[in-house]
Design brief:
The protein is of the alpha/beta class. It contains 10 helices and 10 strands. It has an 8-stranded parallel beta barrel, surrounded by 6 helices.
Amino acid sequence: MDMSGTIWRAGRFRFDLARPRVMGIVNLTPDSFSDGDPALTSTSAIATCERLLAEGADILDLGGESSRPGAEPVSVEEELARVLPVLRAAVTLGHAISVDTTKPEVMRAALELGADIVNDIGALRANGAMDVVAANPTCGVCLMHMRGTPRTMSHDARYEGDDVVTEVAAFLRDRVAAARAAGIDAERIVVDAGIGFGKTPAHNLELLARQADLLAMLERMGTDRPLLAGWSRKSTLAGLVGAAGTPARERNALQRRAVEAASVAAAVLSVERGARIVRVHDVASTVAALALVRAAMPTADNRAPP
């Protein structure tokens, strides 16, 4: 899929996706899979926002509810209490701000405060979610594939004919079509295959190995929207580098470096195979790796200046 000239319209911003973009993760939860912090404060979260932007993030993605396997949902009130104080500061930092939520109440409040993007792991399937995004004339939206819910998805990793790529493509086609039917312009939409969400490690690796096939399927289906890839610190990578048996917060320095290296490698492979946005924890190392990828791309328009 040729993304040259492709624009993603996201609130106050219009991203030219000829250059791959980096979305920095800001988890505002005590129990996130890879970096939950029971001692988190709004002040420390805002400092994280500033650090990720200084490291080169194009977009910040704020999330107030953990989506780790087995996670219990939180109330609307609790999610708002986690997200809104940080969001109020983040929207003044001069960069695009995404809110990672499935709840229409949180989407509405975030957009009213100036958020630019709704990143919904539920692909706007919650009652009222589509209406909230459609009512906003400019916000960007990311529609992700997931089987089940975070609480159940580890038990729901089954695909007809064991063909995860075809099923993911069909789901994303249908959700983009639903968004377009609701009045959401195509330029506002990106899609996400949902690495780790209702998928086994073998499914995740197949989606990476066949990412070009996935994009080609979407294009044939008339759904040639940009792909966001979210491999950062996923358990599949931890398993590959021998760190899966240790809870993320208890990993030693060697294990953390190994998972980071695998995450950066997955981001690079995703971009080489057509992803235009990568959602990552380790912004500085990903930005550095993608600078090399861009400089080495054969298309002159994508080449970094000397």
